[in-house]
Design a protein that fits this description.
The chain is an alpha/beta fold and 371 residues long. It contains 13 helices and 13 strands. A seven-stranded mixed beta sheet has the order 1-9-8-7-4-2-3, sandwiched between helices. Strands 5-6-10 form a three-stranded antiparallel beta sheet. The radius of gyration is 21 Å and the shape is globular. The protein starts with 9 loop residues before the first helix and ends with a helix. The model has no long low-confidence stretch (mean pLDDT 97). Bound molecules: pyridoxal-5'-phosphate. Pyridoxal-5'-phosphate binds next to helix 3. GO terms for molecular function: alanine-glyoxylate transaminase activity; L-serine-pyruvate transaminase activity. Belongs to the class-V pyridoxal-phosphate-dependent aminotransferase family.
């Protein structure tokens, strides 16, 4: 029940076991073409989508490295670990203007506007900040990016396919997602949607060699990749996209929303506080719920106790180690998965004397999910 990599459905695992094919064959081209077309629907975009063999960070690097050159400014808006990754990345390529908000707190749009007023080639943000379970306001930041003519780069790695993610409507120039999150494919693929405006700014030989977006886009126009791709993962991606389409993209997002609503309801019934602070532009995530560690129990007691009973949840990262725990509800997650998780959490809390009776969390979660 961690926020990625998530459980991979049998159908997807079986697809990966197909015999190997040449990545220069017509068979591969057909698969890549189908994946790219389905990914456009998933990203809600008319932009071109390329698939890089590499984890989500490869997509982040391709975006920043392709756009930002030496001396060029990129505003990196952060309120968690992955926002900060853009800062670290940007530092390798250009001149970063980090706009840091405390982890799990909403962005201040006025501060973002002030930073853009000073001129920047690009602005980066994370839509669903997995480290703190918050959904940041891409629509509002997108408006500012357009107003100040900055290339808008959004990490949708734990969001696309789980939360609403409107690439074109929000004016996102480069959107990124990863295979191991809402699509429930094993880790190892980064999907990147690139606008015409961003494409025109990409220069030959800029940024990373392997992550050169221009090279990936050029080859993608023939449904090929510049280098040998992770072919088996492409089999898996195609199958996962078919499964997502069968369920329906809106229905799939609604399922994850209901499950996360169940986790939040259970937290409230068990007197566990949610970690992120939300406001009118910022919401709780439907793909990962971050909760404060209840008093009277340690991280190792809570997560260790759950793990011993067969349920793995995530802890906090960096400064939040021991202070929060996180439950993922992405991919193929079911109501039964969530109820079992909450039941196990309750058992551990009762054993450690944090709660005195069992059932309140499971009841609240099931009612919320069924509502
Ligand atoms: N961005 C977000 C929001 C993430 O959740 C993650 C991974 O958890 C990453 C970036 C990094 O992706 P990867 O580990 O696939 O490189």
């Amino acid at each position: 029940m961690i926020p990625g990599p998530v459980k991979v459905p049998q159908r997807v695992l079986r697809a990966m076991a197909k015999p190997m094919i040449s990545h220069r064959s017509a068979d591969f081209e057909k698969i890549y073409e189908d994946c790219r077309s389905r990914l456009k629907d998933l990203f809600d975009t008319e932009n071109e989508v390329v698939v890089l063999s590499g984890s989500g960070t490869a997509g982040m690097e391709a975006a920043v490295g392709g756009i930002i050159g030496e001396g060029e400014k990129v505003v990196t808006v952060t309120n968690g670990k992955f926002g900060e990754r853009f800062t670290e990345l940007g530092d390798r390529y250009g001149s970063i203007v980090p706009l840091d908000f405390p982890w799990g707190t909403p962005f201040d749009l006025a501060r973002i506007e002030a930073a853009l007023e000073d001129g920047a080639k690009a602005i980066t943000m994370v839509h669903n900040e997995t480290s703190v379970g918050i959904v940041n306001p891409a629509r509002e930041v997108g408006k500012l990016a357009r107003k100040y003519d900055a290339v808008f780069i959004v990490d949708g790695i734990s969001s696309v396919g789980g939360n609403e993610f409107l690439t074109d409507e929000w004016g996102i120039d480069i959107a990124i997602t990863g295979s191991q999150k809402c699509l429930a494919v094993p880790p190892g693929l980064a999907m990147v949607a690139v606008s015409k405006r961003a494409m025109d700014l990409l220069e030959e030989g800029k940024g990373g060699y392997y992550t050169d977006l221009k090279a990936h886009l050029k080859k993608a126009s023939k449904n090929q990749t510049p280098y040998t791709p992770a072919v088996s993962l492409f089999f898996a991606l195609q199958e996962a996209l078919k499964m997502a389409a069968e369920e329906g993209f809106p229905e799939r997002r609604a399922r994850m929303a209901a499950l996360a609503g169940g986790v939040r309801a259970a937290a409230s019934a068990l007197d566990i506080q949610l970690f992120p602070q939300v406001n009118e532009h910022t919401t709780y995530s439907n793909t990962v719920t971050a909760m404060k560690m209840p008093s009277g129990i340690s991280d190792s007691q809570l997560r260790g106790g759950m793990r011993k009973r067969g349920v793995v949840v995530s802890g906090g990262q960096e400064g939040l180690k021991g202070k929060i725990f996180r439950i993922g509800t992405m991919g193929a997650c079911t109501e039964a998965d969530v109820l079992r998780t909450i039941q196990t959490l309750e058992l551990v809390l009762e054993k450690e004397g944090v709660i005195s009776s069992l059932g309140a969390g499971v009841e609240a979660a099931s009612k919320a999910i069924e509502a």
